[in-house]
Known about the structure:
This protein has helices at 5-12, 15-47, 52-99, 112-125, 128-151, 156-204, 206-211, 215-267, 276-286, 291-314, 373-380, 401-406, 422-426, 435-444, 465-476, 495-508, 544-550, 553-564, 567-571, and strands at 333-340, 350-357, 362-367, 389-391, 394-395, 408-411, 420-421, 455-456, 483-487, 513-517, 529-534, 537-542. It is an alpha/beta fold. It has two domains: 2-190 and 232-314, ABC transporter type 1, transmembrane domain (ABC transporter transmembrane region fold, Up-down Bundle); 333-571, Rossmann fold.
Amino acid sequence: MxxxxxxxxxxxxxxxxxxxxxxFGVLAGVTAVGLFAASxxxxxxxxxxxPIQTLAVLIALQKLSSLTRAASRYAERYYSHRATxxxxxxxxxxxxKRLEPLAPGIFAKYRSGDLLARIVGDVESLxxxxxxxxxxxxxxxxxxxxxIFFVSFFSLxxxxxxxxxxxxxxxxxxxxxxxxxxxxARSVRARRGxxxxxxxxxxxxxxxxxxxxxxxxxxxxxxxVAARYVAEEKRNGLHxxxxxxxxxxxxxxxxxxxxxLGAYLVADGQLEGVFLALLVMTSLTVFENAAPMAILxxxxxxxxxxxxxxxxxxxxxxxxxxxxxxxxxxPEIRAEQVTFAFPDQERPVLRDVSVTxxxxxxxxxxxxxxxxxxxxxxxxxxxxxxxxxxxEGTPGQEIDPxxxxxxxxxxxxxNHFFYGTIRDNLQLASSEATDDQMIEALNQVGLSLLALDDxxxxxxxxxxxxxxxxxxxxxxxxxxxxxxxxxxxxxSVDALTEQTILQHLFACAADATLLLVSHRLAGLExxxxxxxxxxxxxxxxxxxxxLMARQGAFYALKQVEQSVFTPDQLVR
Length: 572
């Protein structure tokens, strides 16, 4: 139950609608019982040929009860559903606010398909918490108490039978099935997340699967996962139907007992025969409120596990206590004995990394693939929490990541491009940029052939790798920032275009702190310092001339690069 405490707190915000829905729900239930009880009494009374005035009064009460029931039922549905949808909206907003600070690091812990299933499916499942879990037992108890109080005026023994029926159909049977439901709901939700993950992966990797002729194997895996999910859903459905059947059987048995007991009381002279039909109709009608209790266990477990899965995503989030952070000049950045491993991984990607990036300096971080260069840049961007990062003397844990991003120009290895136009994607960096400024930025990165109104497909599918990188660089040319963090920004660009882009980049970042992660060693002579990394550690730091004279790790990398691109190699 503790998993749903967050939902219960959101319900308190809608207490007005909840109170109205409960009031009209009880009114609708009571009038329904009164309507059918009066019908039974009317039939019995009519058989005794009473005065016409008596029948007229009973018929008038019937009509009034019918109108009251219809109106109260409409009001109950209106207020209960309005409360439900408002609670669902608040839940989405609350969950998003807790999820947002975890991005983009959340993808290191959860696969995108599973995360999508939680954000969409699990949140949608929680819309049933009030309407199918909290609301039915309240209505059931209140309507039953009113009915039992009414029946007690005719027979205490029949009232006692209804109390037993309330306990049996409202609590004992649903409680037993709720206990059994625990493993079913957990299994179904896990299979649903697995299916969503496999479908997402199939669509994302469709091209590669097609190229390597593995689409059939992946489809077979997807069909197997789908079959397991369908089997779990079928088993869960049969369990829910079994619950409903047992609950219905119990209500019918109770009604038969009421009929038999009433007949005995009439025969014994303890009850007038005219009230027998009234008691039977009352019993049949009041147990209609027990029908939602039959499906309550399924919705309860579904809501509980959905809430737990959502909490698993954001359970580590706490209300941050960030300091105000504004950069008025190029910052100094320090990494002091930084050790980092990705979530759920034992192998550290960085080990005791200590390096300083002076204010206003231009630094290149180089090294072999997998040496930890990109991870270090991501830690500086606060994409993952890590100790030992300081920006302008402020510990990284005390800095709002958005404050860093807002005051930085960033180009990552993978940059996202939205469906729209070139103009739309450039305006991500600066919504106030003019067309002339955007055209100039395109010219500076060698994309003069592109027009601002040219269409960009989803994820930039109609752009080459080099065009994507240059378009990402054009974004940072549209705004000034005191910090530049660039991860392999020109890896897919030819050498001549790369030199032109870097010249414009250094001109724009003349007064900023610039950190360039690169596997290319050409053109680094202009850097103030070069940081060389191997296997997650910093092995050398110095200027280009110092490192070449030292003939260490950087010199060895340079020799390898030169040997690869000798004229003889190019001819071959």
